[in-house]
Amino acid sequence: MLKATTDLSVQFFSFLVMSFLFSHMISMRSDATNTTDSGWGSGEACPENCTCRAMDYPKYRSLFNKTVVCTGVQFLNNIFPENIPLDVEILDLSHCRLTRLSLRLTLKHLRFLDISNNDLKVMDRQIHKLTALRQLIMRNNSLSYLQNGAFSGMLYLEVLDLSNNQLYSIEPHTFGGLNYLKKLNLEGNRLHFLSPQWFVSMPSLGWLFLSNNLIGRLKANVFEMLSGLFTMKLDENRISYIEPGAFNGLSHLRILYLTDNLLQTIPSQELHNLPLLQYLYFDKNPVLRIPTLAFHSMNLSMLTMSYMPHLKVIEKESFLNLKHLVTLQLHDNSELVYIDPNAFVNCSHLKNLYLHNNKLQSVSSVLKDSLPALKTLHLYNNELECDCNAMWMKQENLREISNKTYRSVLFGDSLLKCGSPSNRKGILLRDLPLSALNFTCAPVIIPLFRRSYNLSIGEELHLECYAMGLPSPKITWRLPNGTLLDKENLRTGRYEIRNNSRFILRYLYESDTGRYSCEAQSVSGFDTESSIVTVNNKPVRISAEYVAGNFITISWNGTRNQWSMTGYEIHYKPLDNSEKFQIIPLDRRLRQFRYTFTNLSPLTTYMFCIVYVFETELYTVHCTNITTGDEDLSTTGITHINSKMIVGVVTSIFMLLILGCCVLVVRRVGKRKDYLEPLYSKDTESLIDVIPLESMYQGQTTPAACSSRTSLIQSQD
């Protein structure tokens, strides 16, 4: 018993000693953090109105650093202060209205420099003397360009923040030598392009932030040297095209932001070059559809494609073999009307699917059943068709009510409202009795085309429609002549059908005018939607520009912007014989709109026709007859008018006139020098007799525009 008591006493005493030591350490740490260290930072070395102490600085992870904080202090002449302790490790000069650094000090121990929120316009060349620097924060300044070697000497720099400046020009080797750089922030500048040379010497770069610039295109291999990059932000730019191979080299990229750009299609080929990509942010792009196999077999765990104002359709197997996908956000797409029931195939780990605030009329039960791990499905604020297509949703609702342990995948059933039919519009789905919903219903077509189209010959007709119903209806297309195209995929001649839902007719003729119908049929019924298509002749007309005895120059209008045409030809021959037409091919790349026909016969009528060509078929657009003149009118025809040549000739003449004026002025100034000294000599009267007044009076006839003075000599009475 005594031994036990002794052991308890020893343990209690040990506890008191440890508590005292711990409290003492906390006290010492508090003193070091909140009071000036008498051994460092006191005296004249600290700039006025600044704080100098050894402390834990929240912006830097290292503890007990020799720190100078001058946030908001305005220095003399708005330049870098000179009385800073030479052994400083952390220096904060943010919000100091600095206009230039003028760095004269050698701060060999400086590891962290914050000069953000100033008015620096030019990089100080002496900044490379900060050889120990680990982090340089220069955001919110007025830098507009960076020169080669701007950061040379900062061999150990890890973080460089140049965000929210006005950078529009960065020379190729600006970042040369930054072998240990881990994070580069260039957000909020005016960069129009990216150069692969910027990133040549950055093997350690893990984070690259390029948001909110003016980048319009990503070129091939631009990131090829960034094999260690982990996160890249390219959101809020103007990217409209990503070249094949643009993402080459990004073998470890896991997070990619492409939100708020101008991409009209999914860059599937380029995205598949990112084998470890897990998070893709693709919101706010003007994409029209998510096509089949857009993301197949990618490593994604989260994908966001929301707030896309033009997205209408998600096609079959768009999300195929996404075995790691957990969260998919497809909400707030105001034109999204259709998701194929088989859009998700082998997405075995998808738990969260957000489809709210769209324009969906139906989401098939097939889609829901294809996602075995689904826990949360948002479908509220859509335009649901409250018929058999909504039966599974009603059953989910009833099951959750009757079984308290069952949790429905549908979130917010109190917001699920009917959009159609008209007699149920606005009614909550949960308020409809089950008897109001049948297990089968007739097809309902969802047309994605207008009621009518006015097109020109040579253009393409694109029609698209989808259908819902139980059982699933079959879609066919009917042509104006009654022909029914019922194959799921067809490509023959000018016709193409893709997945039954998309009809394409290329190189239209006037004879293609008529009604085109999308028809849906099942054992439950039939539905059809049509569009009236009018094909007009091209607004191309030939006119005579110059007529002579042996040549004719013609011109035509209306072809300059018809780039969907495969080509034009001009056919011509004498009108009064049966000769074959002679053919002149026109190259649309040259933007040709006039031509001269030579070696013609005088006083002869010729027929000229402009012809549209598709493969082996010809379509006459316009013809006209023109008669040549007498032989006396034969001259050289108009083959080409070069506006640049005319401008060059006019400019040359103007320059010669200016040169002539300059010569005249020089000559008159020379004469003034010859006569200036005699005019002001004492013996003025005797000298006047020898001055050649004739030449002076002759000079007065020079035009005023070319003379420097009217006269250099005052007349004497």
From TrEMBL:
GO terms for cellular component: plasma membrane. The keyword Lyase does not apply. SUPFAM superfamilies: Fibronectin type III, Immunoglobulin, L domain-like. It is a single-pass membrane protein. Residues 538-631 form the Fibronectin type-III domain. It holds the Pfam family LRR_8. Its main location: membrane. The keyword Disulfide bond applies. The chain crosses the membrane at residues 645-666. It is found in: Membrane. Residues 443-534 form the Ig-like domain. Keywords: Disulfide bond, Glycoprotein, Leucine-rich repeat, Membrane, Repeat, Signal, Transmembrane, Transmembrane helix. Residues 1-32 form the signal peptide. It comes from the Eukaryota. InterPro entries: Cys-rich_flank_reg_C, FN3_dom, FN3_sf, Ig-like_dom, Ig-like_dom_sf, Ig-like_fold, Ig_I-set, Ig_sub. This is Uncharacterized protein. It comes from Magallana gigas (Pacific oyster). The lineage of its organism: Eukaryota, Metazoa, Spiralia, Lophotrochozoa, Mollusca.
